[in-house]
User: What shape does this take?
Amino acid sequence: MTLKIHIDDSAPPYEQVRAQISEQARSGVLPVGYRLPTVRGLAESLGLAPNTVAKAYRALETDGVIETRGRNGTLVAPAGAAAERELASAAQAYVERARRLGMDEDAALAAVRDALRAAYEG
Assistant: This one.
């Protein structure tokens, strides 16, 4: 696993750690079951505070990218399940927002279709 923290980046260090591990897990660079370094070990190797790495690990666990198994360490979780959970959560948040805005189901679906066409058809 290779991580680089850019001090001049606008993203905070914990977010850089989270994003890089997430991308490496989703792309297969970090295979399912790969054992991540301890919080303390990764913090030392990156020159970060342990709380910074712990915050990134908590966010990754919430996203389903990694799972902590006590003494067995922190491992990369199966990607499909994590992506599906994240997508379902995003969909639920969208539905709640659309309802707060007073949109009916047809308007909400039309907005999603437009966004999908724009994203996937260029």
Observations:
- The chain has a mean pLDDT of 91.
- The CA atoms of residues 90 and 96 lie 10 Å apart.
